[in-house]
Specification:
The chain has 220 residues and is α/β, with parallel strands linked by helices. 33% of the residues lie in helices and 18% in strands. Strands 1-3-2-4-5-6-7 form a 7-stranded mixed beta sheet, with helices on both faces. Helix 2 crosses helix 3. The protein is globular.
């Protein structure tokens, strides 16, 4: 995987995707795509698959960029300091997720679950293709500032979004949390929780809430 060195974010590598079910066992089941955070890889969130409703086919993908040495893992977009997140790079990463979906799967419905950077990309992918994605689980992430052409369509559809974050999360800048707090209720059917004492991570209580949310999407 190459570092970001130009205007285009590389495509996702289909050979490193972790699937919870073999191709023969995927037909007729909903798809849940996992998008990991900065410095992680496709294995990071895949451990959650056994804790989620079994009906979902889970696919954990790898971000296409390599963070600067000596950071491990992969990233969805470059970060130069905690406050420097280029919205265009987030949109490019989200476009690559949507392109991978077009090529890799015809399963429906499709939901996205992302952590940190992955959550920002998941929400941006929803904004790019609101008809394609049925819901998003955004953990310790944010909505990228700036308007996109289909935001009005998303506001009409009111897709379900679960947004979970901790009171002690010092990684996501406060201005992005404030923006997300204002933006999501007007563009999605928002549910979620702020977890007391939780930092930039996922807790058992949050996993329980995620499972309840995902089961509701199955019922819907």
């Amino acid at each position: 995987m190459a570092e970001f060195s130009g205007p285009e974010t590389p495509a996702l590598d289909p050979t490193v995707v972790q699937w919870s079910a073999a191709p023969a066992d995927r037909a007729g089941r909903p798809l849940l795509v996992l998008l990991h955070g900065y410095g992680a890889d496709e294995h990071d969130l895949f451990s959650l698959a056994r804790l989620l409703p079994e009906r979902y086919v889970v696919a954990a993908v790898r971000a296409p960029l390599s963070p600067p040495w000596p950071s491990p893992g992969f990233s969805w977009y470059p970060i130069e300091g905690l406050d420097d997140r280029d919205p265009r790079r987030v949109t490019e990463a989200a476009s690559r997720v949507n392109e991978w979906l077009d090529a890799a799967s015809d399963l429906e419905p499709v939901g996205l679950l992302g952590f940190s950077q992955g959550a920002a990309v998941a929400l941006q992918a929803l904004r790019l293709q609101p008809q394609r994605h049925s819901f998003v689980v955004a953990l310790s992430g944010y909505v990228t500032p700036g308007d996109l052409p289909r935001d009005g369509e998303l506001a009409e559809l009111q897709r379900p979004v679960f947004w979970g974050r901790g009171t002690h999360d010092d990684v996501i800048p406060e201005y992005l949390v404030d923006h997300t707090t204002q933006w999501l209720p007007t563009h999605a059917d928002l549910s979620g929780r702020v977890y007391t004492g939780l930092g930039h991570s996922v807790s058992e209580a949050e996993i329980t809430d995620i499972r309840v949310f995902l089961e509701k999407q199955l019922d819907a």
